Automatic annotation (TrEMBL):
Gene3D superfamilies: GDNF binding domain. SMART domains: GDNF. The gene is Gfra2. It comes from Phaetusa simplex (large-billed tern). Keywords: Cell membrane, Disulfide bond, Glycoprotein, GPI-anchor, Lipoprotein, Membrane, Receptor, Signal. The keyword Isomerase does not apply. This is GDNF family receptor alpha-2. One of its GO terms (biological process) is nervous system development. It is a lipid-anchor; GPI-anchor. One of its GO terms (molecular function) is glial cell-derived neurotrophic factor receptor activity. The keyword Zinc does not apply. Disulfide bonds join 35-41, 147-208, 154-160, 171-186, 181-227, 210-215, 237-310, 244-250, 261-279, 271-334, 312-322. Belongs to the GDNFR family.
Amino acid sequence: DEILRSLAGPPSPPGQDPPHGWRVAVDCVRANELCAAEPSCSSRYRTLRQCLAGRDRNTMLANKECQAALEVLQESPLYDCRCKRGMKKELQCLQIYWSIHLGLTEGEEFYEASPYEPVTSRLSDIFRLASIFSGMDPATNSKSNHCLDAAKACNLNDNCKRLRSGYISTCSKEISATEHCSRRKCHKALRQFFDRVPSEYTYRLLFCSCKDQACAERRRQTIVPSCSYEDKEKPNCLDLRNTCRTDHLCRSRLADFHTNCQASFQSLTSCPGDNYQACLGSYAGLIAGFDMTPNYVDASTTSITISPWCSCKGSGNMEEECEKFLRDFTENPCLRNAIQAFGNGTDVNLSPKNPSPPITLPPKTEKSPPLPDDINDSNTMYDTSVITTCTSIQEPDETLLSPRPQTQLTTDIMPDQKTFVDQKAGGSRHWAGRILPLVPTLLLKLVV
């Protein structure tokens, strides 16, 4: 509780603003330069690094100098810094990030925050660019081998073709009779391909949709799994995670995957922020993240199952945690939906799953066939007999003076006046108007 309160950071004293540029979100390389230019920050940063060297967290936090260093650095640009994917000094940036945040966290959390800047782009941009660059749209022909089309599209781009040929050659090169490839070099070549080639090409190779096993097997073989993915035996998944966390780059890519692909059942797509692009980018970034590289487990066309090369055998009392970690790959609705969305050429922004609210129609129109477009149906909801009855009530004198069957009335609605005219009752009203004034005179003469 004490460390959580301290991490909140005390507010700046009134009237004292932080130095220019400090609380602005910058990459960690730039933040390190800003800190080095400030004597107080620089000395505290050196103190913190010494505190973290060879000590566990509890011992470090018990030291007052280490705690003071943490408090000062919380107000420095290092605290809020992030890294850009594929930046020139990415590894240096990540090293600086973890040098701070490993001291601010327990270091044993199941999920860690991503050190990378948030992804704001959407898949719709990649759908548009993919068709422009390749000259072919995978969504237009359901019979074609989309993974083969993706390979052809890559070959039309010099950069994509060169780097793809490079990693295929490296990952397929046999070293000796017992070692058929150099996994380390293969991972490096793969990482260069996915970091340096635009996602319009890499996504189509990784996430192409398939209707037959030949296509699905080509998709599975995209990363040359015999070298980059498979091994003689499957290690324990928690051991694999721990090994990954000892490397700054692998740790960062894994944390980024969990941040952007962790299933969220409060969103439309099961993805955080309904952002398919962020999840697919994190997945692609995890490939060649050393031994944590995920891949398709088979060439199935009916289901998509992704997994790192590991199992939960030998987990002991950590089996539940191991299974949870593995399910983030094998049973992840966010990742599965994102892959299917790209393969189908649909994005949550382009084809929302929540339909527009239905228009409420009057009860009489239920199950009625739609009217032709050239007919004006603006008055079809009204019943003419109701209008006739209401009109009769409004004109009681006409009904009493000239009683007649209802069938003799015509309901001609005039354009200018909304009144009803009885064509046969006009004469009766005329004679009644002339006779009635003479009745009293006749009665008087008879009395006399």
